[in-house]
Design brief:
The protein is of the alpha/beta class. It is 35% helix and 12% strand.
Amino acid sequence: MIRLWLSSLQLIELFISSCVHLLYGFYIFSTAITYDLFQHFKPNNNNINFEVKNVSNSQKNCSSSFNDDDLPPIVLVHGIFGFGQGRLGGLSYFAGAEKKDERVLVPDLGSLTSIYDRARELFYYLKGGQVDYGEEHSKLYGHSQFGRVYEQGNYPQWDDEHPIHFVGHSAGAQVVRVLQQMLADKAFKGHDTHPNWVLSITSLSGAFNGTTRTYFDGMQPEDGRTMKPICLLQLCRLGVIVYDWFDISWLKEYYNFGFDHFNMSWRKIGVSGFVDCILGNAGPFASGDWILPDLTIQGSMRLNSHIQTFPDTYYFSYATKRTRQFLRFTVPSGVLGIHPLLFIRVLQMSQWRHPSDVPPPYKGYRDEDWWDNDGALNTISMMYPRFPIEHPHRLVTSDSDCRPLEPGIWYYKIIEGDHIMFVINRERAGVEFDLIYDSIFERCRKHAFRRNPQTLPNQSQHTVVDS
C-alpha cells in the first residue's frame, strides 16, 4: 500500500513538472514569435515576410568588426536548452547583456548535445570551416563525422596572439573548459592550437561537478548514464525525437536541439528508423552522446579527470544559491525570489538523499554538501572544479580578494539567485543584472589582458586558499 502511494505521488509530480516545463517552453516560444510578428507588422514594413535568420551565416560578417588592434572578443556560451544569436527571433538568451560591449559573440550550439560535441562546434564557429566531431568519436557514438559549415569564422584570427575571453552559463562553462583542453591536446586537425588561446573563463552558475537534479529528472544514480523507464527525461527524449524526425525546416531554423549530425530526419531514416529511435535502439539517447549524462556527478567526474586548469588563463566563477538554513534544515530562501519553474526543484534538491543501496559517487561524499542549490545546480558544483581533484581556488568576499588577479586560480563568489536569474529575463534580476555583467565585462577588459604588460597581474606562485 505504501509503495502504491509513493508511486502515485511520483506520477503526480511527473505530471505537474511536465506541465510546468511545457507551459514555460510555450511561453518562451510564443514570446519570440510575437516579437517577430510585431517587427514585421510595424507601419514602416510594407512587405510582410516572415523569415527566420540562417544561423550558420547570421554572424558571418561579425569577424570584420575585429582586427589586430582591437581588444579580445568576449564569447557568451549558453547552457542546456539555450540558444545563440539568430535563434528564437529577437530573443536573447543572455537577456541583452551582449549589448554591453561592441566585441561580443553569442554562438548557437546544440541545446541538448553533449559537452564534447558542443566544444567542437564552438571551435569551428570561431575559426571557420566544417565542424569535425572526430572520426573515432563519431564512429563510437553513431553519428556523422561532419556537421555545420561556417564559410567564414566569427573570429578566424584566433590564436595565442589573439586570445578570447569566454563567459559560460550553466553547462556552457564546462563546454569552454573542455574546449580549452582540446586546444591543449591539439585535437583539431590542421590547427596548431594552444591553451593560451583562452585568455579568461568566467562561469555564471557553471556546471563543473554535476548536479543531483539529473537524478530527480530520471538519470540512474547507479551509473549516471542510463534513464529510468518512466521520468521527465523520457518525455523529453520522445519530444526531441519527434521534433527532429518531422524535420520542419523553418521550425528548426527557429530552434534546434542540435542533433542534425545524428540524421534523425524522416528523409534519412524513414519510419523504421523512427521506431528504432523511439524504442531506444538508435540515436543520441541510445548512445549516451547527449548533455544529461555529462551533468550527472559521475559524468562530470569523468570529464574533470582529464581537464586541467592552465597557468596562464584567468578563471572566475559565480555560484548561485536560493536556499538557507532553518532549524538545521536546508529550505528555499523565500518564494517570490525563485522562478515558478524552479521553486519545486529548489525544495527537492535541498532534501536530496543518495540511495542507500548505491555506492557514493566519490570518497567522502555527504548528502548535506549538495543541499544548497539554485533549482538546477548544486552550489557546491558551481564554485570551482573539485571532483575528483580540487583545482586551485580562492573564495571572493570583497574586491580586494582579487587584487592582484592571478592566472591559474579559480576565484569564486557565492551570490543569491536562482539558475535563470541572469538570463532570459533582465527585469527579474533588476539592478543585480547590471552589477554582475558590468563586473564580468570590466574584468575582461581591465584585469585580464595578457598582451598589455601594464595590466599583467602578479605571476608569483599561489597557495590554495580554502573557503
